Amino acid sequence: MRQQQHHTVDSLPWYQDTIWARLVNKLSHGKRFPHPEQRVSFVLPEQYLPGYKSELFSQQQIRQHEPISLSTSLSIRGSSSDGNLEASEKGQPTSPENVSQNNASAQKDGTGTIKEANNLEAPPNDMNNEDDPYLVHWSGPGDPENPLNWSPKRKIFVTGLLCLLTFSVYLGSAIYTPGIVLIADYFGVGTVTATLGLTLFVVGYGTGPMLGLTAASEIPAIGRTLPYVVTLFFFFILQIPTALTSNIAGFMVLRFLTGLFGCPPLATGGASIGDMFEPTTRPFAMGAWGISAILGPVLGPVVGGFAAQHYGTQGFRWTIWPLLMLSGFTLIVLVVALPETSSSNILFRRCKRLRKKTNNMHLRTKGEMMIAHLTGKEIALMTFVRPFVLSFTEPIVLGINLHIGLVYGILYLWFECFPIVFVETYGFNLGEQGLAFSGIVVGAILAYSAFCLWVKYSYIPLYIENKGKVGPEKWLEPAVIAAWAIPICMFGFGWTANRSIHWIVPIIFSAFFAIGTFPLFQCGLAYLADCYPDYLASVFSGNDFFRSGIGAALPLVGHAMFSNLQKNGPVQFPVAWGCFLIGCISLVMAPIPLLLYRYGPRLRTWSSYALDPASK
Questions:
Q1: Domain boundaries in the chain?
Q2: Tens of pLDDT along 203-215?
Q3: pTM of the predicted structure, to 2 decimals
Q4: Is the Cα torsion angle 430, 433, 435, 440 positive or negative in sign?
Q5: At the top level of CATH, which class does the domain 387-616 belong to?
Q6: Could you tell me the CA-to-CA distances from 559 to 146, 242, 252, 418 in Å, in that order?
């Protein structure tokens, strides 16, 4: 076992690890907002000093007269180091010079060779060896820099910031949809071409993870906060030319680029939450974050609708300006208040400060060793090849991706369906049409509440009883029931969207969409995470690409589908047959969670990638 280190890390203020505080710290050479390692009063851990390994080896040779493992003791000190031991016991740092002198004295005793000792002075290269003195990690189980040890208030605050970021970006996917007709008229193009602005945005944030924009967050030297802020900055800047462009081609290219730079929140937001929360509390935070991901595109038409309505033929430009304002506000908030959550990055920077403090260039973290062992081929395989391999060769991944892809496509299909129903049939204006999405908002809140109750009274007791060993299929229980809410929504919405039926009825049926979608997302992704713990990045990248592809395609064919299927009537139900078709597809897919719940363990047994059922 690794010996408890002799120092403690002081509790840090909330702003310590934010972007602006890190910048001020760097510019002031550690004088402002100092980390514990940068303070004069900091007591250096003895085992981090240069020469410690060699000196320890020599003292062991003196005591034992035979080679022994370094892990036998990290505190054996000979008579030649009594002074250092006394200093250590008094809480005073041991100087590198004393360690080197003691090491030289031991070498003169002839009990070990210089070659043997020098061979020990090397960086750690085995991530499984917790006993290596030069391996830098948490100071103990209560280290306050560890995000898992943050206070509940801090965790809730940071989760709220991640929700704000996710909402701000994904509001942009649908915020301009109320202006599609205005765009078509202004640029002289068809509505299908004008709809490409929605499609290309979705394609952009589905493609981003496949191009490595989110993989950077796994690099210890980069972390998660910096990619969030940098990509949001470009997202913010790109809104200006998007709102001012004078040609349709430029508008579409810019929409794709904004989607591309908007991919990190949805792709890695869950990882940031996982950095902070234990398994028993993580589902509640993940659920709240999932709500923000749904509310973004759902509330986009509300904001965009009122903006487009009040600015005439140029109204489509004013569907973009609110996005500029919101993303700019969010950017400032994140720079000031969002701390780093990646353990690898926090430890990397701690190790860097310790190397500077001790002049011991052999100090390393596990994250550094992991990256050092990755080859370019492995990175390319993980980023570009394995997501597709897993998506199409693993039945579990394919089933979840198809189901989530369908509901994601329906989410964006609503932006074609709602104008037909609430503007053309019920006579709503653009702003009121956006308010029609309130049914989905209410449904999402109800689904989240039910999900939290299931986690509290079903999942957590089983998790505690089995000491954390819960089969992945447990996550599918809510999805088994929720999957049937999607066909109920589609059949009910399609056949009640009629002028003779009050508009509240189809809105109520639209709530069933969120009641089904929220558990499918939360439970489906949690199930994939538990089934493929060693291939999370590849599985989630494939899922992003899969669902974004379907979500991008359906809006393009949506208007034509509703129009063509409705040619033979009944005229008074303008979206009935289109919703019926989608409802039938969702009815066919509804048994997927049940089938995976029943046969998932057997499928994992056959898989070369999935977790072996015998291990959990």
A1: 51-120, 387-616
A2: 999 988 888 778 7
A3: 0.86
A4: negative
A5: mainly alpha
A6: 51, 25, 19, 11
